[in-house]
Fold:
Amino acid sequence: MNTTFNLADIQGNILRGYRRDFVRHLILEVTDKVTARRFLAAAVDGSSTDVPAITRDVTWKVRPPFCFNIGITFEGLRALGTPSQHLNTFPTEFKHGMTKRAIKIGDFGKSAPENWPAPFDQPDRVHLIASIHADDEAHLDQIEAQVAKAFTVLGVRNGRNLPDGKVFFGYVDGISQPRFKHVIDPDMKDVDEPMDPLGTALLGYPTKQEGVLYRVPTPHELGFNGSFNAFRVLEQDAAAFEAYLDAAASTLMDHPKKHLLANPDRLDLIGKDLDMHGALREVVAAQMCGRWRNGVPYELSPDAQFPETEVSPTNFDYTHASRCPAGSHLRRGNPRGGPIVQRIANYTRRLVRRGMSYGPDFDPRNPDSRERGLLGSFIGANIAAQFEAVMCDWINLGLQDPNITGANDPLLGANTPETSWFDMTLSDGDSIRLYGFPRLIFTRGGAYTFLPSLAAIKYLSELTD
Structure:
């Protein structure tokens, strides 16, 4: 049994990001398992000109023209012929699939699976999600055509990087990602994040909790070096977000302590040519997220989006006296070493986040209601202990801090205007409570997938039943 860490056995989209301009996710069904297995064999071998090679986690001397990776659902493993005794060793939440776990992760109302468009309205047919990253759409088309010869393409989701690395809400995204021991990532060389153990993202390695290892599905060659992904199609209501900032800023204009949110004599620190109302809009956006929209952490620079001295975008922590609200999106999803109720949970729910935007451009000066959002992958070694725990306990219940329990994440949470609230912090230690948050992000599809190692893909290709 080989338990040696070998980067070349690991799919390349797990421990390091690709930083390409475009992504295309192909939602696939296995309709001929013999043909599908033959494709997987060739994808691992990498010598065929008719089948894209699985991209491994290696340091490239020459940047490849595209990257290709696959995730397989529980039904996909079954469709490929995985024996039942091995299927039964996978975690319960993965067996259930995302649709059956919907309430736990906040997918109800408009976000409920019964409202998801095709092909996610037929989860039993979603067997693989193949992801192609490239800097031009020609390579996306080429690889899709090759994949379509071995699988039925049920649907396609296209994503792209927006200018300046932003998302449709206007925030710079993708700043904070885990760093892993034994992995040298040139794109993370100046990042001050702490090192995470390999078991955060890979099966078969130690985790942050001493003595705790997540169960590795059997046989060893199938489970070892694998990971899990919660793939999500997340619609972002940018028009509603900008409208809420307008409404909140108008409310704050009448508050006697508004000067503690934005210094009327130095509004230039928040944004060029802003009046008080415009500055308050940016403060609300910054406190909701935990970062200013240009990426500067609110914790390190609570009074200025454009501080006069440089601050690190990643090297910070939280205390009881933090100006960054406990209910902010950033602090909820990654409390770092800060004070939370379950201190043992600090850093244990860390997720690898990969994502690109989809949909038409958005102009906040001329908002429209066309669908746009994020194609997100939330990768970890255990869906329940990481992704679902974050979504349920921290994002939608606020169990990490009694001061926010009962309030949802202001950006990602399953909010309703009638019950939602958020406490903004002030420099004098006081707070201002905002009400009436609409739901800003809606789930439009998704699936739980297993990201197998190269050895596991080879194992699946050699099944014979």
Summary: The chain has twelve helices and twelve strands. The radius of gyration is 22 Å. Residues 238-252 form the longest helix (15 residues).
